[in-house]
Amino acid sequence: MDALYELLNFGFQFLDSFAFIVLATVGLAIIFGMMGIINLAHGEFILVGAYATTLSFHAGLPLPLAMVAGVVVTTIFGIILERTIIHRLYGRLLDSMVVTFGISLVMIQLTRIVFGNSLPQIGTPFGGISYGPYSYSTYRSVFLASVAVVALVALYVVFTRTTFGVCARATIQDEETARSMGVDTDRMYLSTFAIGSALAGLTGALYAPATTMSPELGTYFLVEAFVAVVVGGPSVLLGTPLAGVLLGTVDAFFANLWGQFMGTVFLLLTAIIAIRLMPDGITGLLRDLREKWGQSE
Amino acid sequence: MSSESKSSLLARVRSPFEGPNTIGNSNAFWASFTLGIVLLGLYPVLFGAYAAESSSVYLVYALLGVSLAFIWGFCGILSFGQVAFFGIAGYTFGIVSINISTYTGVTLGLLTGVLVATLFAALLGYFMFYGGIREVYVTIITLVVALVLHTFMGQTAGSEWAIGDARLGGFNGMVGVPDLAVGFGTTGLEFAGAMHYYIALLVLVATVLGLRALVNSQFGYAMVATREDETRTEMFGYNTTFIKFATFTIGGALAGLSGVLFVTWGNYIDPSEFAITAAAMPVIWASIGGRESLVGTVAAAIVIQWLQLQLIGEWALVIVGSLLIVVILVLPNGIAPGVRDLVASFQENRDKDAGTPAAAEEVSD
Known about the structure:
heterodimer; A: two-stranded antiparallel sheet; B: mainly alpha; two-stranded antiparallel ribbon
């Protein structure tokens, strides 16, 4: 019986970690992988989503609507930022990091000045799943993991099966050619950035009932998001879930064994070893393997 | 170079410190450089030992900024983790000097602090550059390393986190770190108060001059070539992996040295030195001052830290962050190259009047 409980603990912890890693990463991965912009303010986009959700909930909106408000506010925020600042940074990788880092600093401090060091929290919905002497939050494990999978599938469909997706990827592959074929590349960049912002807003909205609302909220997401992007490698739509599974397993295993902090430490150690062995991440390794097999045939 | 005949001795003295890779090789530059040092040297005399003691930290931060400007500006490696080496050296100094509470211990702390930071930088650099990790990923990994250290040191509040007599203290930090000193047993020279200021100034000036010499040496040319086009540099037979590794390690050692100077200044260190806002500061100084200019970074570090700590209170980070965004968008290379161009255009106008247009070229390299 104890072994079964251990297994269930591990399973729920895995779903929780997997959901956290994938949701923290998707927005960043889209903006980085598609546009070559490293958004160090990604955590603060999540912050905007979380704060907008919490504030609209306290203003009287029911939670699902408050979450929609969180996503909408973050998307608009992203669009404004793209038009004013980010669009000057395409093709300037390191500058994009430094500038978004500046944005992140400004936003953390402004949040602190305007809202203080914390907001009253929304209760986590759905209650818990009980098994033996233990229980685990349904919301954090089952629900968020399902949303993470749905988000990934939706992105896959959008970027591979729609005209917009084809145009967006064409813009990223070769801007000049895409433009000469009549693609409005400017709008493609803006739309892709808006999708990335919306995903960050979604993450913020989803974690609003499950995390403490403080101005540093974004930092917790940022580290795991970066680790997952790096481990995932160049093909983000495939890399993000693979990294989520690998890192989620490691995190869940060690968190169960020695506590949450050691889970995080081992997650980062795994990431560092993974990068040492596969400089281009999991999808880089897959690509190399495919090329090798292709040659031997 | 019309002035060379007049002051050939001066030209010979300063020649190792100037070349195509440094901004400011003119007489005017060296005159203001010397003036700056003299003014900084007079500061304790004019404002007293207390002011000097509290201002010493700006020189320490300037050294940290220089350690980043060196690797980022000249070799193209953007490290967000300079504070990691800074903090590691600070903690190491604390642990050693608290446990061996004689001058021997403090001297040993200085050496081990810098050594441990250097080794850590070398290990991380080996791992990254020999692992084939590319530019952006280097930045991300260094940032993650700093943030992991932040989390790790933050949870060391318990009494089990003590090394000998030195308690790490979690977010409360490590207290009771002794002043900087050199000596053996009970005889030694202590650098507290205004002396700490002068030591920091001496280290800073020596570092800036040393790095100016280094970046204008063969190794410096190779560094800049690596920054500009790594593949081509490798084709010419340079070991770019080793160049990046060595540059990164030197930068880590300098950051470690500034960490030791920091912890002996406040006699205290806590995990906030590893936090994301702290990690941002060297990048901000180098970006605003001009990452390809060591002196520009020094000036930016001193001015920005002074503004932040003395004047603006809770709006400080908002203002500094906005300044960073504006500078990168308007002057992508920072303020120092802008100043250089301004000086060059002045010079050009003046020389046009005087009829010697060639002199402007020297300034503009």
